[in-house]
């Protein structure tokens, strides 16, 4: 395509993606009551033990003026819209990129997408499940003589950040396998770097998790380590297959065959 045609194609893809997000946001606005109950459930589960043990009242509040309720609902609806319309706008991105890829590259793109999407979804689910524990630990630092007032905006940011961190961390095997297929790292290099990688994973988990408790850090670090070990095994199998199918290398002083 000429450059102008590429720009027109990009504009068409962007319009479709924006319309899909807009429709998803409208659906999120309609589903707001039930979705908000689902959102606040980790908060309720996390603070319920503290309400009994410490005897203070922890509340979710809105702050920022008269329009704060509308702003929060719109922001929450936009988050829901991005999630609902993800297959559409991600599909538009792929539709714009795939024509530039060769057949083999397209096959790997489809395979990586098929693997990456369930891994990301699994990481999001784990992040949502550990939210109550993280909230309980963080709220536990509040003195017993005060009431804790947490704004809905801060709580939404906390939830989104937590599930995104867990979802992105679940992509470790995908990244490692991709680097191995590109020839950047080998299975033997991954094995030799394993101790430092494990230390780096625990440091990343300690920094990335919004809560400071070791249990939440372990919920993130242990699956990452296991996924890294699985990707190391896959990389070793891939290297062994490459060695079996690759032509035998000749030394510098050895003559190559004529045919």
TrEMBL record:
Subunit structure as annotated in this protein's UniProt entry: The Tat system comprises two distinct complexes: a TatABC complex, containing multiple copies of TatA, TatB and TatC subunits, and a separate TatA complex, containing only TatA subunits. Substrates initially bind to the TatABC complex, which probably triggers association of the separate TatA complex to form the active translocon.
Keyword presence, Cell wall biogenesis/degradation: no
Protein name: Sec-independent protein translocase protein TatC
Residue ranges crossing the lipid bilayer per the database entry: 12-32, 76-97, 109-131, 158-179, 191-209, 215-235
Family statement drawn from the similarity comment of this UniProt entry: Belongs to the TatC family.
Subcellular location(s) of the protein: Cell membrane; Membrane
Species whose genome carries this gene: Aeromicrobium panaciterrae
Broad class of the protein's primary localization: membrane
UniProt keyword Transmembrane helix present: yes
UniProt keyword list: Cell membrane, Membrane, Protein transport, Translocation, Transmembrane, Transmembrane helix, Transport
Coiled-coil ranges from the UniProt annotation: none
Reported function: Part of the twin-arginine translocation (Tat) system that transports large folded proteins containing a characteristic twin-arginine motif in their signal peptide across membranes. Together with TatB, TatC is part of a receptor directly interacting with Tat signal peptides.
Family annotation (NCBIfam families): tatC
Topology of this chain in the membrane: Multi-pass membrane protein
């Amino acid at each position: 395509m000429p450059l102008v045609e590429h720009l027109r194609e990009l504009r068409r893809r962007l319009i479709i993606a924006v319309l899909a997000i807009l429709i998803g946001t409208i659906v999120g606005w309609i589903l707001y009551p039930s979705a908000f109950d689902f959102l606040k459930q980790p908060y309720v589960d996390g603070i319920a033990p503290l309400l009994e043990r410490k005897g203070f009242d922890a509340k979710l509040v809105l702050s920022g003026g008269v329009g704060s309720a509308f702003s929060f609902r719109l922001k929450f609806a936009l988050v829901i819209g991005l999630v609902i319309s993800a297959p559409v706008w991600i599909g538009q991105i792929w539709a714009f990129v795939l024509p530039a890829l060769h057949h083999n590259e397209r096959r790997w793109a489809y395979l990586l997408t098929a693997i990456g999407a369930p891994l990301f979804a699994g990481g999001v689910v784990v992040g949502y499940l550990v939210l109550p524990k993280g909230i309980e630990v963080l709220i536990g630092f509040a003195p017993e003589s005060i009431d804790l007032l947490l704004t809905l905006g801060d709580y939404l940011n906390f939830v989104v950040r937590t599930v995104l961190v867990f979802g992105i961390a679940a992509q470790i095997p995908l990244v490692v396998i991709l680097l191995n297929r590109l020839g950047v790292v080998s299975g033997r290099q991954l094995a030799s770097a394993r101790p430092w990688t494990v230390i780096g994973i625990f440091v990343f988990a300690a920094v990335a998790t919004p809560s400071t408790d070791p249990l939440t850090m372990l919920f993130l670090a242990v699956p990452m380590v296991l996924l890294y070990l699985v990707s190391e095994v896959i990389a070793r199998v891939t290297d062994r297959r490459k060695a079996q199918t690759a032509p035998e290398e000749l030394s510098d002083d050895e003559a190559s065959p004529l045919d």
